[in-house]
Amino acid sequence: MNDRYAPVSETAAREREPVVWSLLLGAPDATVGLQRWLYDALRQAIVTARLPPGSALPGTRTLAQQYGLARGTVASAYEQLLSEGYLVSRRGSATRVSTQLPDPRYAAEPLTHLQATPDGRPGREAQGPWIKRLTEHESPFPLSGTTSLPRPFHPHRSDIRLFPIDVWRKLHARHLRPSRLLTLDDADPVGLPALRKAIVEHLAISRAVTVSPEQVVIVGSVQQALDLCLRLLTAPGDAVWMEDPGYVGARQIMHASGTRIVDVPIDSDGLVVEHGVREAPGAALAYVTPSRHAPLGISMSTERQTALLRWAHSHGGVIFEDDYDSEYCFRSRPLPALRSLPGAESHVVLAGTFSKLMFPSLRHAYVVLPPRLVAPFVRAASITARSASGLTQAVLADFLSEGHFDRHIRRTRTIYAARARAFEHFAQKYWHDLIRVEPIAAGLDVACHLLHIDESTALQRLKSVGIAAAPLSKYTHRHRHGPALVMGFAPFNEDETERAAQQVAAGLRNAV
Questions:
Q1: Judging by beta carbons within 10 Å of its beta carbon (0-12, 13-18, 19+), is residue 285 exposed, middle or buried?
Q2: Percent of the chain scored above 70 by pLDDT?
Q3: 199 and 325 in contact (C-beta within 8 Å)?
Q4: What are the domain boundaries of the chain?
Q5: In this predicted model, what pLDDT tens digit does every residue of 168-192 receive, in sequence order?
Q6: Which residue has the higher pLDDT, 45 or 23?
Q7: Which of 73, 133, 172, 187 suits a disulfide with 387, CB 3.0-4.6 Å?
Q8: Residues paired with 239 in a beta bridge
Q9: Is the dihedral of CA 360, 169, 392, 218 positive or negative?
Q10: pLDDT band for position 26 (50/70/90)?
């Protein structure tokens, strides 16, 4: 899909061009005249792109006052740069850096090459054990922003076009009134009381979880919640259970923490608990996605959930329940959370995020903690991340308490269910002899099993026709499930899905 966000008009782009009010040029050089020094300093800043193209320079009076120069000296330096094409000026507008320079800009030296301190001594590189372990694997998250919607069939994405942005904008404006400016101040590290109360009410209705607001903490992401739990509950070398296959982000956090990861296989009933008990009965923590396994989409059976809780009670372990995609159940009634079962309160940490359900840049999540973990978790959060945005928390609290969130989930659940059926239909129509797609019961993506081709070849061919997918092997460590691709269907309407399905078929048939 080639949909792009609305282009920025030339007028709007010009209004956003940087304005340089305080220009740092260093001390004047006593060996040359002031005008020559100023000319050289400005030209150097321009050709090295420290002054970006289109940026507005200070007025001659402002710059003269800043450096104690005569205004005529500054005007003369500006005039020379104007005549040489480094600056442009229009009547009634600020003097700006030209977008077309008379000579090429110098290439900026990459930061990775800067290995010396200002006094010339070799600089210390990032080499602690945490960063070494963290960088042994590719990050599962984008390391730069994007200005485009996802390509089909990029997994783990919702359709941000469905979000009720007008409602959000009105709620946001409400909290920017002068009478509510306290939302701009520091927020409590545990989270805004109104938001925690709204989450408690939501969990009681949708996840059958009864909990007090005092046990709910607002965080930036499920990743952050897992990171803090590992810091609080484990030491390097401690065993932790990890679903295999399983969520790559969780595995990398565990690896970076220095814990010993015990890969526990997944079958048709979910986590094979007896395998974990046999391999590491004294594990400190078990990470699970019981409502909908990431990425296989399996729901953990009641028997397995009971066995997992029995292990936690017997050995004092903590279960970290990532409530992954639980809101999007298409073929049956939603399953209650593991945290809702009797005896779970003391041993289960339940974490969920609003970022996928609403929009990714929201970066607000919650964690429900056993009572004994609340105080240490809040203290750790206050040190490492301070608190989530109080303004956004206030808007989100209203969004939940006034029913907008429930309406959004009901609407998108209906739409995604229809898109899941469309994906199944076109997969059968165009890929029946290439890919086996199981019925999609829940979630935003599905594991699609390759019939006659390996993952690497399939991904290469799909990339050549503009299709994105993730290999199942990316999520696995020891326990293989055969060649498959994880493909997302939620961001794409029926027409977009059919076009992309035809592209998939064309690409893969060339590889068979």
A1: buried
A2: 86
A3: no
A4: 10-97, 164-402, 408-509
A5: 999 999 999 887 777 777 778 899 9
A6: 45
A7: 187
A8: 260
A9: negative
A10: confident
pTM above 0.90, yes or no: no
In tens, the pLDDT along 422-443 reads 999 999 999 999 999 999 999 9
Measured distance CA(82)–CA(57) in Å, rounded? 12
Residue 227 structure tokens: 């990171």
Measure Cα distances from 304 to 144, 332, 470, 480 in Å.
Answer: 39, 19, 28, 21
Q: How far apart are CA 71 and CA 88, in angstroms?
A: 19
Domain 408-509: CATH class, spelled out = alpha beta
* Residues belonging to the chain: 512
Distance CA 100, CA 102 (A): 7
Give the distance from CA 21 to its chain's centroid: 34
Per the CB < 8 A criterion, the answer to whether 57 and 87 are in contact is: yes
CATH number for the domain running over 164-402? 3.40.640.10
The rounded distance, in Å, linking the Cα atoms of 479 and 241 is 14
Among 1.10.1740.10, 3.40.50.2300, 1.10.3720.10, 1.10.10.10, name the CATH number for the domain at 10-97. Answer: 1.10.10.10
HSE, CB side, 13 Å, CA atoms: give it for residue 285.
29
**How far does CA 470 lie from the centroid of its chain?**
17
- Taking the C-alpha atoms of residue 55 and residue 18, their distance in angstroms, rounded to an integer, is 5
CA pair distance 191, 473, nearest whole angstrom: 38
H helices present in 365-454, as ranges: 371-384, 390-401, 404-431
Which long-range contacts (C-beta less than 8 Å, at least 24 apart) are formed by 367-371? 367/216, 367/217, 367/219, 367/222, 367/225, 368/203, 368/209, 368/211, 368/215, 368/216, 368/339, 369/215, 369/216, 369/217, 370/215, 370/318, 370/345, 370/346, 371/215, 371/345, 371/346
